[in-house]
């Protein structure tokens, strides 16, 4: 990845923290993977201190639970530890707290759009270089292959997502 940012001064308006929230249904499969992968992307780019990244679900079914064992396993296979994440439900103030809200499928995007009004709301696959505008398949209850496919789709969207965020923030890419 070739993203670099000069050291901004604390008085630089562009130095404000960039906030990104990933949303799926239960916050135990897809959005924890997206959170972990995006954290790795911004760390690799040397931008970790500039970002606040989180994930949530539109359903309260799994609040407080660790990610699905399949998500933990596929992330670990790629050197990412998401085991300490805990599921949470979308909150009313998330629209104010997060500039970027990135949904993993259209159904969750509709729910998010009805509950909060973030500045930017879109599907992760809107930035997918192979297939735009469709949802990331939910691997919940599926095989390890389903989790591998989910991981691969999310992973290939990370660099284009980071580039999109940085372009809108008018930062060097």
What are the salient characteristics of this protein?
Rossmann fold, globular, alpha/beta, about 170 residues
Mean pLDDT: 91
The CATH level-2 architecture is identified as 3-Layer(aba) Sandwich
Rg result: 15 Å
| Count of individual helical segments | 5
Describe this structure in words.
There is one protein chain. By secondary structure, the chain is of the alpha/beta class. The chain has one domain: Response regulator (Rossmann fold), CATH 3.40.50. The protein has helices at residues 30-44, 69-77, 94-97, 106-115, 144-168; strands spanning 18-24, 51-57, 100-103, 120-123. Helix 1 links the parallel strand 1 and strand 2. The radius of gyration is 15 Å and the shape is globular.
Task: Report a brief summary of the structure.
The protein is of the alpha/beta class and 173 residues long. The protein has helices at 30-44, 69-77, 94-97, 106-115, 144-168, and strands at 18-24, 51-57, 100-103, 120-123. It has one domain: Response regulator (Rossmann fold), CATH 3.40.50.
Spell out the blueprint of helices and strands.
Blueprint: E1 18-24, H1 30-44, E2 51-57, H2 69-77, H3 94-97, E3 100-103, H4 106-115, E4 120-123, H5 144-168
Parallel strand pairs: 1-2, 1-3, 3-4
């Amino acid at each position: 990845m070739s993203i670099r940012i000069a050291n901004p001064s604390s008085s630089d308006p562009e130095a404000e923290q960039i906030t990104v929230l990933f949303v799926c249904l239960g916050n135990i499969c897809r959005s924890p993977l997206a959170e972990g992968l995006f954290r790795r992307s911004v760390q690799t780019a040397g931008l970790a201190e500039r970002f606040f990244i989180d994930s949530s679900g539109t359903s309260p079914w799994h609040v407080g639970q660790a990610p699905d064992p399949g998500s933990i396993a596929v992330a670990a296979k790629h050197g990412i530890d998401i085991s300490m994440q805990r599921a949470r439900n979308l909150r009313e103030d998330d629209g104010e707290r997060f500039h970027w809200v990135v949904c993993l499928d259209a159904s969750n995007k509709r729910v998010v759009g009805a509950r909060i009004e973030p500045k930017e709301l879109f599907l992760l696959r809107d930035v997918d270089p192979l297939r735009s505008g469709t949802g990331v398949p939910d691997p919940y209850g599926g095989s390890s292959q389903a989790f591998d496919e989910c991981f691969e789709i999310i992973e290939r969207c990370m660099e284009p997502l980071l580039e999109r965020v940085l372009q809108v923030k008018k930062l060097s890419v």
